[in-house]
Amino acid sequence: MAAQIDLHCHSTISDGILSPQELVAHAAKSGVKVLALTDHDDVGGLQAAREAAMQYGIQFVNGVEISATWKKRTLHIVGLKIDAENKALKTALDKVRIGRDARAQEIAAGLAKVGIHGAYEGANAIAKQSILTRSHFAQFLVQNGNAKDVKTVFKKFLVKGKPGFVDHQWMTLQEAVELIIGAGGSAVIAHPGRYDLGRINMLELMQEFRSYGGAAIEVITGSHTPPQYQQFAKIAHQFSLKCSIGSDYHGYGVSHMAMGSVPNLPAGCVPVWDDWPEAAYLLN
Ligand code: AMP
Ligand code: MN
Ligand code: MN
Ligand code: MN
User: Does a structural domain hold residue 246?
Assistant: First the structure.
C-alpha cells in the first residue's frame, strides 16, 4: 500500500508547476493525508497551502528545502515543522534568494558565452514571481530549442563543467541544520542517494549531520531506487537517525514519483513523524 504521508514537494513558490492551492488539491485527490510543502529556500507558500489543506481535510506540516554547501557539493536539507515566522530563518532565506538572483545572472552570462542570449529574462518570465532555479533555466532552454527535453538540457548546459553551471556557495550544512532547529523544526537530509559521495564521505556526512542535531534522512524519495530504500534504511539505523518519505513532486511529467504512489518505509525504520500529533493515526 502506498504511504499516506508526503513530506517533500514543490509549488510555484519555487520550481513546481502547481500553485500551493492546486498542489494541496492534487495531494488530496491522490490519497495523501499528511502533507508538507517544501519549496526551495522559500516559505512563502505555506500559509496558502495550510488554508487549502484545511478545506481538503489534509493534515498540513510546514516545510522548506534549504540549499547548503558541504565539501564543495550542494546538499538539500529539508526542514519540517518549522515556524515560518521565525526571524532568523526568514532573514537567512531572504539572503539565499538574493544570492540566487546573482547566481542566475552568472548562469545567463555563461550561456551567453556559448551564444544563448536572453536566458535571465527568459527564465524569469517562466519563474514569474518565484525564485530562479536551474529548473527555470532548463525550461527556457527547451523552449528556446537548445535541447529536446529538460533531462538533456541539464546534462548539456546546467551541471558541473557545462556553460550554464555556476559553482555557487550556499550556506553551510551546520547553518542549515541550526536554522531549522532554531525555528523549532526537524532537519532531514533530502535524497541522500543523489549526492554521489562515495562510502567514506557518506558516512562522514551522516556523522556530522547528527552532531549538529540533524533528525532524519529521506529513505523513500522519487530519486531513490528500491535497493537504495534498503541501503538508506540501514544507514539511518546505523546513525540513529529517523526516516522520512517524500515524492519530491514538482508537477505532472516532471517528477520521478507521482503523489499518492510513494511506498511506505521499510520495516525497522523509525519514522520522522513518530512523535507528531499531525501523523499520530498513521502509526496505528
Ligand atoms: P537549483 O536549486 O537552482 O540548483 O535547481 C535545482 C533543481 O533543478 C532541483 O530541485 C530539481 O528540481 C532540478 N534538477 C536538478 N537536476 C536535474 C536533472 N538532472 N534533471 C531534471 N531536473 C533537475
Ligand atoms: Mn526542484
Ligand atoms: Mn532537492
Ligand atoms: Mn525537492
Answer: yes
